[in-house]
Write a structure and sequence with these properties.
Largest sheet: 6 strands, mixed
Structural class: alpha/beta
Radius of gyration: 17 Å
Distance between the termini: 20 Å
Shape: globular
Strand order of the largest sheet: 6-7-8-3-9-10
Order of helices and strands: EEEHEEHEHHHEHEHEE
Length: 209
């Protein structure tokens, strides 16, 4: 179970995320909605520890995981709004680099390559990928370690349309029933309604539902 306790963040004296608290049980998808600039991506970056909170804590299975590298590499998968890839590498090299960073050995899980159609792209340079291809690689990186928690920030935005239903079907039919947990940030009500047992809405950095 992931538990967020009073997590908050300010920039230059302006509060962009008021103290936020919620619980995400295993096997559940929690939706995150709100207008652009409402604080959704900030909240996910804090949970992924791309940024440090001003105060508050994040617990997983009852213990604090702030600063826990093993949790971040092996139990948490994060898909940012825009793919953050090494343009000088090939797709295969990018996947291998992240595997090694996670302390994993062997080839990438074949089910991940199949889900996202990456086998034919292994030797393709990252710099030559379309936006949709790059998003597929970004999602694959989040799945390589078979994490127990996924943070998905507008993950279907820019994704090749053939892969949107494949991803949703996999989350709904495989990942969540297997005990995984998801925070799904989206502007698409149909996605939120399909995947999420509950939806939190952010307005001006404050959770309102």
């Amino acid at each position: 179970m992931l538990e967020v306790r009073q997590l908050c963040k300010s920039y230059g004296g302006r509060q962009v995320l008021a103290p936020a608290s919620f619980v995400l049980p295993p096997g559940q998808c929690l939706g995150l909605a709100g207008s652009n600039g409402s604080g959704k991506s900030t909240l996910l970056r804090l949970l992924a520890q791309i940024q440090r909170p001003d105060s508050g804590d994040v617990l997983f299975q009852g213990r604090s995981v702030l600063g826990d590298r093993h949790f971040l590499r092996r139990q948490l998968g994060y898909v940012p709004q825009s793919a953050e890839l090494a343009r000088e590498l090939t797709v295969g090299q990018q996947l291998d680099l992240w595997q090694r960073a996670c302390g994993l050995t062997g080839p990438p899980p074949p089910e991940v390559l199949e889900l996202l159609g990456l086998e034919p792209l292994q030797n393709k340079p990252i710099r030559s990928l379309s936006g949709g291809m790059a998003q597929r690689v970004s999602i694959a990186l989040a799945l390589l370690a078979r994490p127990q928690v996924l943070l998905m920030d507008e993950s279907t935005a820019g994704l090749d349309q053939d892969y949107v239903p494949r991803l949703l079907d996999w989350l709904e039919g495989v990942y969540l029933p297997g005990g995984g947990s998801v925070i799904w940030c989206s502007h698409h009500p149909a996605e939120l309604e399909r995947l999420c047992g509950a939806v939190l809405r952010l307005e001006d950095g404050k959770l309102v539902s």
